[in-house]
Amino acid sequence: MKKINCVLALLLLAAIPAAAAKDKDNGESVVIPDVEMIDIPTAGILDYYGFMLKTRFYTGGGVLGGLNFGVQERLNIGASMSVDKLIGSESGIKMRRPEIQVKFRFYDGGYYIPAAAVGYDGQGYYYNAADKKYLEKGKGLYLAGSKEIGLAGLALHGGFNVPDFDNNYLFGFLGVNYTLEDKIAFMLELDSLFHSDDPSRFNAGIRLYVTPYFQLDMGMREIGRNGKFSNGFQRKAERMVQMRYNTSF
Questions:
Q1: How far apart are alpha carbons 185 and 177 in whole angstroms?
Q2: 104, exposed or middle or buried, with CB in 10 Å at 0-12, 13-18, 19+?
Q3: Contact at 8 Å (CB) between 192 and 200?
Q4: pLDDT at position 152, please?
Q5: DSSP-based three-state secondary structure for 2
Q6: Is 26 strand, coil or helix?
């Protein structure tokens, strides 16, 4: 019963009825720029006084919740926390430590040069309690760039990140999304590039803009991936559902 109540509370928070956002100048509905795709960040940020609530459901009945705030004109600060086995009848609910997110957009982009942001994200996936680390590490310190290419609504995102300062490996990520009439977006991304001992991931998904402020994501992570993590845990494709609610104070 406690599990059901927790899940209902998360769903209600993520699905607060959002009246269509209105542009202050002409009253038309607008969609807030995406600050992330499936796993990779973009150069997009929340506006000053902006707020985002995220609820993500993952393998094994786990739920990842996150909050993000636009504390300054170019600066976003947030936090996230995952809870394993929250959904379903399996016992042993585990709350993992909170992780912080910070992003600063230092360049808005030009005709040739993409918009750029630097940030930090400690949220990883598949927590290994034995060594108290994520099997799929968070982005850590990253540099992300985003630019519309070719067609209206077609955007390319990419960047570099250092997830672990113990070995200082430099990883890369690359993604593309196409947004059709501010109603649906198609997303493809390659993550964790450059190092075979931490294999790359291919993810794909769609984002439904239910309202300008409420989005529903559905996707697949680690498509075509098999094998095992360093602790012997099976590596395989994972279904993902995520709800995001954006508003402003």
A1: 6
A2: middle
A3: yes
A4: 86
A5: helix
A6: coil
Tell me which CATH homologous superfamily contains domain 2-248.
Answer: monomeric porin ompg (2.40.160.40)
Q: Is 222 in contact with 240 (CB distance < 8 Å)?
A: no
Q: Which residues, in sequence order, are CB contacts of 128 under 8 Å at separation 6+? A: 134, 135, 229, 231, 233
The span from the CA of 4 to the CA of 14, in Å, is: 15
Residues making up the chain, counted from first to last: 249
The DSSP bridge partners found for residue 238 are 221
DSSP letter for 217, please: E
Gap between the Cα atoms of 46 and 202, Å rounded: 26
Which residue ranges make up each domain of the chain? 2-248
**97: amino acid identity, one letter:** R
Backbone angles phi, psi at 124, to 5 degrees: -110, -170
Q: pLDDT tens-digit profile of 66-95?
A: 999 999 999 999 999 999 888 877 777 889
**Confidence band (pLDDT; 50, 70, 90) for 32?**
low
Residue 102 to residue 49: CA distance in whole angstroms: 15
Name residues whose C-beta falls within 8 Å of residue 136's C-beta, 6 or more positions apart in sequence.
124, 125, 126, 192, 201
Distance CA 209, CA 207 (A): 6
**Phi then psi for 11, rounded to 5 degrees?**
-65, -40
CA distance 86 to 55: 13
For 213, phi then psi, to 5°, come to -110, -5
pTM (two decimals) = 0.84
Q: Is the dihedral of CA 201, 43, 209, 183 positive or negative?
A: negative
